[in-house]
Design brief:
Largest sheet: 6 strands, mixed
Order of helices and strands: EHEHHEEEEHHHEEEH
CATH topology of the domain at 87-279: Chloramphenicol Acetyltransferase
Helix content: 25-40%
CATH architecture of the domain at 87-279: 2-Layer Sandwich
Shape: globular
CATH class of the domain at 87-279: Alpha Beta
Number of helices: 7
Distance between the termini: 25 Å
Length: 295
């Protein structure tokens, strides 16, 4: 992911055209042209006990606070890097595979009802580990919270669009959608926009809320929406048969079923669970295989 690739006819600037998809998958975008028509929702509880121990040890050595969210972002990036179909999207009724693994989330400038939100995008590199990713997230959030108002990027562009008279705004959005359908939209219109990333993540645990269903958007290319709930204690039946109270986190994921089948999605979720149970994998570069046995 992220390496320079020769562009062929039919490719977009943000992804290559996947022409060898099975017949059913090739037909589905014509039968269900809108992303919201192909939504599937997964919800599961993941054991985070070992991950919390890992974070506690890391924070003894770091000059900033690493969090479960940082590790979840890194784990999701590793999953996508290892499961390339999770990095696909449907646009213009064709299947594309992104060149980069990108994750986005919303940051509150202040924890207040009337506080503005900022859009943040992280592009993961094959050499990244949880150390680099967590530092970038912490640095970006600190920089964003220096101001209570948009200072540039996608936030400022949205503010400017919102000031247009309604007829002009409707026309502008229609033109942007048309350009995106054909894959000729200017890059400056999508830079920093979470609707054009691999996974859009909502960290509901930071406000003590459970993971919830969150819809996909028909606009853009985002095919996966993940919500991370609050940590909680739960009694778990362990492999040897005894019961134990463990630290659990619930995760919800809404996916576009047109990019892959349910079996592929289920195995991808198993990999996330494996990473949470073996957090030492987070210190390996994303480009290195996890060694997870999918059988």
């Amino acid at each position: 992911m992220g390496e320079k690739r020769e562009k062929h006819w039919g490719d977009r600037w943000d992804g290559r055209w996947v022409k060898d998809v099975p017949g059913l998958q090739a037909i589905m975008p014509h039968l269900m042209p809108y992303r919201t028509e192909g939504e599937v929702y997964l919800h599961d509880e993941i054991d985070a006990t070992e991950l919390l121990k890992f974070i506690e040890k890391k924070n003894e050595q770091l000059d900033y606070k690493m969090t479960l969210f940082h590790c979840a972002i890194t784990g999701l990036a590793r999953m996508v890097r290892e499961r390339p179909k999770m990095n696909r999207f449907i646009q213009g009724r064709r299947t594309y595979e992104r060149y980069d693994v990108s994750l986005s989330f919303v940051c509150k400038r202040r924890f207040a009802d009337n506080a503005e939100e900022a859009l943040m995008v992280l592009v993961a590199k094959d050499t990244d580990t949880v150390n680099e990713i967590s530092r970038r997230i912490v640095g970006d959030v600190k920089e964003t919270r220096k101001s209570e108002h948009a200072t540039g990027g996608a936030d400022a562009m949205l503010d400017n669009f919102a000031k247009l008279p309604r007829p002009l705004l409707m026309l502008a959005i229609r033109v942007i959608r048309w350009l995106d359908f054909w894959g000729i939209n200017p890059k400056f219109l999508t830079d920093g926009d979470p609707n054009f990333t691999t996974i859009l993540v909502s960290n509901l645990g930071s406000i003590k809320c459970p993971a919830v269903y969150h819809h996909l958007n028909n606009y853009g290319t985002n095919s996966i929406m993940v919500t991370i709930g609050a940590l909680h204690k739960a009694e778990v039946l362990m492999p040897d048969g005894h019961r134990e109270v463990r630290d659990m986190v619930d995760i919800g994921a809404t996916l576009d079923e047109r990019i892959a089948d349910g079996f592929y999605f289920a195995r991808s979720l198993k990999l996330i669970k494996y990473i949470f149970a073996h957090p030492e994998l987070l210190e390996k570069p994303l480009g290195e295989p996890s060694g997870f046995d999918y059988t």
